[in-house]
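Narrative of activities, Objective 1.

The group set out to show that a structural description can be obtained from nothing but a protein's sequence at a throughput compatible with the screening campaign. Below is one input-output pair from the validation batch, recorded exactly as produced.
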Amino acid sequence: MPAIFALIYGFASYAIFFGTFLYAIGFTTGLVVPKTIDIGGPEGFQPLAETLLINLAVLSIFAVQHSVMARKPFKRWITRFLPATIERSTYVLLASLALMLVLWQWRPIPTILWEVGGTAGTALLALSLAGFGIVLISTFLINHFELFGLQQVILNFVGREAVEQKFRTPLLYKAVRHPLYLGFVIAFWAAPVMTAGHLLFAVVTTGYILVGIALEERDLIDAFGDEYRRYRQQVAALIPFWGKSS
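Output recorded for this entry:
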């Protein structure tokens, strides 16, 4: 693939990701966007079993895409057909499309389980937004542009090789091993209004996050060996000072 086309593809994939991520913030918090986790979807009565099936199906598609495409065997397989330069951008693009499917096909279950109003409710909403902020900050602390495929296509365009990745634990990574995942957990659970649909979303995504951590830790141990094992012994996975590996 000519370097200019790879560059355009990488930037287009990133733009699609960033737009989808911003919409997902509104979807989860109920701010600005027309369809949210509690508003929108088909008109009229929807059988609960059908609603649950559709919601679980779209979340499962998202989870499987994320987990399978992030693994090294899949990366080796797909780079037999795609240039390695755009492998990460392709992952980002397909992940964004999978998230779009969730946002598009999600069926609200509006039964309210608990509701927090006033100052406390505003504080919960602010905490949810802060969670998304932690997610974004965490990506920049490691390498935002490599994580989302831009670095690869830019280096390819200018004819430079990527520097070998080194193990680092900047700022938030000194408190927890997975601040990015912690940010998502905070964002999904800090809801002033917790509906049955929002609870389903929070439970399933948290379960996926725990599975994702286990898979990612295995890859990190393969990549960094004893250095990462020592890190696991010293720093908790999600909650500071709790749940360290031995």
